Amino acid sequence: MAIFKPFRALRPIPEKAAAIASMPYDVMDSDEARAEVKKNPLSYLHVEKPEIDLPLGTDLYAPEVYAKARENLLRYVNEGLMKQDSRPMFYIYRQTMDGRDQIGLVGLASVDEYMNGIIKKHELTRADKEADRIRHVDTCDAHPSPVFFTYRHQDEIDATVAKVMRQKDPVYDFVSDDGIGHALWLMDSEEDINAIQAAFAKLPCLYVADGHHRTASAAKVGLVRREQNPDYTGEEEFNFFMTVIFPDNQLKIFDYNRVVKDLNGLTQDKFLAKVREKFSVEPVSQAGPFRPSKLHEFGMYLGGTWYKLEALPGTWDDTNVVDSLDVSIMQNNLLHPILGIGDPRRDNRIDFVGGIRGLGELVRRVDSGREVVAFAMFPTSMDELLGIADAGEIMPPKSTWFEPKLRSGLFIHPLQ
């Protein structure tokens, strides 16, 4: 069974929700965050990126950074900008992008179910990134922002969510400055709460879609709190962590493209010759970038020309769910053996560009001389993601890019 619990969210008063809501901590750097809060002083970036309120040059992982995050979170409460709901409930969170809705439920997932594998993951995490989020959660004494989960959609859950949205008005409904619509409904009736919990209890598992570091960190804070409270009952808030969970059929994964700084000492002609050993290579005559339209097809921008690449038969193993991913085919047949990029997580010769920025960004990067070659990827599918998680396998780095991103600051889970 999958545990999904209602909770008492700390959240903005309705008239301040749009001003407080911010992008998550990991999609902008400190300078971008400082510029954002100059435009919008109430932005939740004061909690997500607290270094913006400290002197330039402050170590991002210094104790005073985490202390400032807690101070800033408490300030929202003390100034009456946020209040905690009086009773536990679920929250319906709808995001609208380019006319497409994704409608999730905000609630609590179980630390135990993360540890025992009922909550399935598909990415590795790094200890340094985990340590940062552990300190952030622990010092704030709250889960300041949610993780992003998915589940195989269920008609019963859809029906309950749709009923509440028909019967009630949203408490928040605004469009953020990036054009994304955000709306929140309160699911506070016992009948609806029980229906949602019963429906999730029938599911064999849940899936981390995005936010693996935050998920791992939230679980580890729970384990530390248990050690500090040996008489814990299992019902304390630290035994659970906050997630927004969406049905799989509403989510869209964008392409996650690659740009590389050099050709590993090869001339352009020698590089193309090596690529042709594993891919068919065809110059593209169309105006504008070439976007792959199917699995095992790639776009490559080199020397002012777009090429269509198709992986040749035998360059992947159809029986292996990881090996047959396009990101694996690209890594195993081109990036590693030809360009010498063995560990894309740590090699500074490669960078990754989310598909939301468009293929024109790949052209700009290469034409500027910043990089030499770019690769446009066909997006990983939700079926591939769930299949890899079900198999207990791990995706290669930078396999998925979800849009829209969750807004931070609309709901917080206090640990007391």
Structure in words:
The structure is a single chain. By secondary structure, the chain is of the alpha+beta class. The chain is built from 13 helices and 20 strands. It folds into two domains: about 260 residues, no CATH class; about 120 residues, Conserved hypothetical protein from pyrococcus furiosus pfu- 392566-001, domain 2 (2-Layer Sandwich), CATH 3.30.1760. The strands form five sheets. The chain has an eight-stranded mixed sheet with strand order 5-10-7-11-4-3-9-8. It has a six-stranded antiparallel sheet with strand order 14-16-15-18-13-17, with helices on both faces. It has a two-stranded antiparallel ribbon with strand order 1-2. A hairpin with a 2-residue loop joins strand 3 and strand 4. Helix 6 crosses helix 9 and helix 7 packs antiparallel against helix 8. It is globular, with a radius of gyration of 23 Å. The relative contact order is 0.17.
